From TrEMBL:
It comes from the Bacteria. InterPro entries: DDP-like_NUDIX (IPR047198), NUDIX_hydrolase-like_dom_sf (IPR015797), NUDIX_hydrolase_dom (IPR000086). Gene3D superfamilies: Nucleoside Triphosphate Pyrophosphohydrolase. It comes from Methylorubrum aminovorans. This is Nudix hydrolase domain-containing protein.
Length: 152
């Protein structure tokens, strides 16, 4: 649900994000979600593109900063979704998030935004239910059905 109608005439601002995934001992997949700092809704680690970094590198950096996770990030996006970001001045801006897969290898105890967000692992179906953006829920469901052994 968004704060208002998303008009197709508005130019979406680009963002980059990761879909953090790991294998369970039973061979299933889990998805890591974090809470946003302002509204505390469940989201994926994401942010603005970074000068001097490729989009997938910037997305991996956001994962480290927001959730303390590191791993192997895919260079090809798995998709994108749209959402309305509320700015500090209360304006809303339409954002298009390009999402890269992240095979999480390690979750650090210390990272820049520790204590500012909650992070939790979910099954793909649970994660899809927790997010409010329909496009992101679709990406999560599709990722949960992918064979993680296939090259990304």
């Amino acid at each position: 649900m968004t704060a208002g109608p998303i008009e197709s005439s508005r130019e979406a601002r680009p963002q980059v994000g990761v879909l953090p995934m790991r294998r369970t001992p039973e061979g299933g997949t889990e998805i890591l979600l974090v809470t946003s700092r302002e509204t505390r809704r469940w989201i994926i680690p994401k942010g603005w593109p970074m000068k001097g970094r490729k989009p997938f590198e910037a997305a991996a950096r956001e994962a480290y900063e927001e959730a303390g996770i590191v791993g192997r990030v895919g260079k090809r996006p798995i998709g994108f979704y749209l959402y309305e970001k509320r700015l500090k001045n209360r304006d809303a801006v339409l954002c298009q998030v390009t999402v890269f897969p992240l095979d999480v290898r390690k979750q650090l105890k210390k990272f820049p935004e520790r204590g500012q967000r909650e992070a939790r692992w979910f099954s793909p179906s649970e994660a899809a239910e927790m997010v409010i953006e329909a496009g992101l829920a679709g990406l999560i469901r599709a990722a949960g059905n992918r064979d993680p052994k296939k090259k990304r």
